[in-house]
Every structure is written in C-alpha cells, then in structure tokens.
C-alpha cells in the first residue's frame, strides 16, 4: 500500500471514528506515514491543545488505530506546533503523566 493511501485511510478513520476532535474545535493532521513499516504520526491541536481529555484522546488513537486499521503497525500522536500549538502546554503535559489517564477508555 502506498503512503498516500495509508495517509488517506488514516484521515478517514479519524474523521469517522473520532469526530469529537473537530466537533469541539480541535484539528488533526497526518504528519508522517511510513508505508513500509506501517508507522503513522498524527498531530492534534486547536482546542485539543488545552483540553483536559486530550491525553486520553491521544492514548485512544494510539491504541485503537493499529487494532482497527489494516496496514498500520503503530501510531504516535503529538501536539501540533507553530501557531496551532498548545494553549496550556504545561497543564496538558502534566496530565499525560497522571496515573488516572493510563487505563481510561473514552467512548469513541
């Protein structure tokens, strides 16, 4: 499968299965795709950057995408940089390390 095909399928998966990102003022973009290894990097930003459940959303995407999409072996979710960077980076970074978020499974 081509990287372009894998990128398109990843975008479609996120649009259809994690609509909360865009519905709540956030955005995602597929930053990198390695079609040989099946590794995908997704960036989230906008309202997601300061959202209290962003670490849970990131974790859910990292775990569910490889399980539910053929051709994807691993997913890395990162924060968008530049003008779309985190609103509260210190808070969201702190939240990612909280024990409460490790096993949480959001309803999407």
UniProtKB/TrEMBL annotation:
It holds the Pfam family NifU. Residues 19-75 form the NIF system FeS cluster assembly NifU C-terminal domain. This is NifU family protein. It comes from Halogeometricum luteum. The lineage of its organism: Archaea, Methanobacteriati, Methanobacteriota, Stenosarchaea group, Halobacteria.
């Amino acid at each position: 499968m081509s990287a372009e095909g894998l990128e398109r399928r990843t975008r479609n998966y996120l649009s259809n299965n994690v609509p909360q990102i865009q519905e709540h003022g956030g955005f995602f973009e597929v930053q990198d795709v390695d079609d040989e290894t099946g590794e995908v990097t997704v960036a989230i930003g906008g309202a997601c950057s300061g959202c209290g459940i962003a670490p849970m959303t990131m974790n859910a995407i990292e775990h569910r995408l490889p399980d539910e999409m053929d051709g994807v072996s691993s997913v890395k979710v990162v924060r968008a940089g530049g003008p779309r960077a985190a609103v509260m980076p210190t808070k969201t970074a702190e939240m990612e390390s909280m024990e409460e978020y490790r096993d949480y499974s959001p309803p999407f």
